[in-house]
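Structure ticket #2291
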Amino acid sequence: MSDSRGLKKPLLYALIVSVLLGAILGILLVLRNTWGWLEVRVMLTTVVIAVASLCGLACDLSKTPFGLNLLPKAGLVMTGITAAMLLLGMWGDVDSEVYWKISAVVSIFGVATVHVCLLSIARLVGRFQWVYWIGCQVIFGLAVLLATIIFGEIESEGIWRLVATMSIVAAAITLVIPILHRIGRMESSREDLLMPVDRRNIASIDEEIACMEKELARMQRLRKEIVERDTPKDG
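Resolution: structure written out below.
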């Protein structure tokens, strides 16, 4: 729990600072009417940091209080790698086609992972679970298809129609899953249907209750010891 809290604060600060800095720089550049490569890189840097912070917060939001949380961790790692590659490529003036292709593919899979993390926030009842799993396959399948297009430099009209079709399906599933979550919550009040943030809050409350119960037991033992010590014994 503490790791999650420790990560959330820096991400929030990075998001706020990048948005404010981007707004200030944008106003200054508009007033000065100067748009050189340096100014463009500075603006893009603020955008990259802001988007990376949002993606990190989305992954952190999908974490559950128990379990390995492999998907959110993978999303955080890929977000960090993507941001680092984009910033390095911009400020290092990297002129390698392969480098930018790899950066694009890593970015695509990073976005796909964050997308799936966001969908996992909505908890579905058993009969709706298949929608989430199909959504995961479509989203990662679309990422694989885009990566193949980038590295294979495919320009077929049919493949782009397939991309458009899969994108529409992914968008539809993204809209449907929160609705199915609400339907499931209306029909059942089971704890396993709570969103991760609610489950983390409950886990924190349970942890506080356990600490209070331990402290209460300690105080009761101390009281018993005092009473037994001050009570005269017969005989």
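Closing remark: The helical segments are 2-32, 37-61, 70-91, 97-121, 129-152, 157-187, 196-230.
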